[in-house]
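README, section 4: Worked example with a bound small molecule

Sections 1 through 3 covered apo chains. Here we extend the same pipeline to holo records, where the ligand is supplied as SMILES alongside the sequence. The molecule in this example is magnesium ion. Nothing else about the input changes; the structure line simply encodes the ligand pose together with the chain.
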Amino acid sequence: MASGSDATTGSAVALEDVRKTYRLAEPVHALDGVTLEIPRGSYTAIMGPSGSGKSTLMNLVGCLDTPTEGSVVVDGREVAGLGERERTRLRGTTVGFVFQTFNLMPRLNALENVALPQLFQGVGRNERRERARTLLERVGLGDRTDHMPNELSGGQRQRVALARALVNDPAIVLADEPSGNLDTETEADVLDLFAAFHEGGTTMVVVTHERHVAERAERIVHLLDGRIERIEELEPTDRGAGDPPEPGRSDGRPGSNR
Ligand SMILES: Nc1ncnc2c1ncn2[C@@H]1O[C@H](COP(=O)(O)OP(=O)(O)O)[C@@H](O)[C@H]1O
Ligand SMILES: [Mg+2]
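The generated complex, written as structure tokens:
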């Protein structure tokens, strides 16, 4: 990225002194003055204890919600001033979501689930199906297009969800605890896919409780009580390798080679 470029065009997301207060009997300051810039094409992990504001932050970055105070600029647009309809439109073209619980439509097969977000973008039926098929192939599920969600494993469902998140070619992919429901091996596959999409230029933002998941990113934003406690920059050598382990590095446990 060219140095000295305009901060707005260089950023996928720019938060400026963002506050989000929930007015209950006692006000809850879910975010309490967060300033954060997420460069285009970067890979950011967000960590913090339960209740520290991670999901609130993701909802703002994903244009699902507006801040109580402060500025949230996503892909060059100020979200705070947008109405519900405009936010929905911005979200549909800019952001892809991956949730811990996958959130697939139970009565739609894998292909239909992946194709669905394009429906709201005015893409024709054949093109929708074609694109959905391409993405399912990319996540290794080209042979599962007509399976229903309950006919897929947890890891396969998460890969369908990832394909769906990417189908509109979003600038930003947001994942909130994406591997929380996956076993170690399928988690590694999903994280490899995240790395591949990051390599392809997608801005990745991943919320996680797991240090080894966060270490796949370029930096870790640590949240505490609605504030950024610190930002940890990771050296490429610190980051988990995207390649499968070499035979010589195997842990020697029987059956660990797949
Ligand atoms: N819709 C809401 N109404 C009231 N309080 C909320 C709401 N959403 C989140 N909170 C509160 O805001 C704080 C941050 O929540 P959240 O962003 O979900 O944290 P995290 O994802 O890090 O666990 C918590 O204290 C939570 O109880
Ligand atoms: Mg959360």
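What to look for in the output: The longest strand covers residues 11-23. Confidence is low (pLDDT under 50) at residues 1-8, 244-258.

Section 5 describes how to batch many such records.
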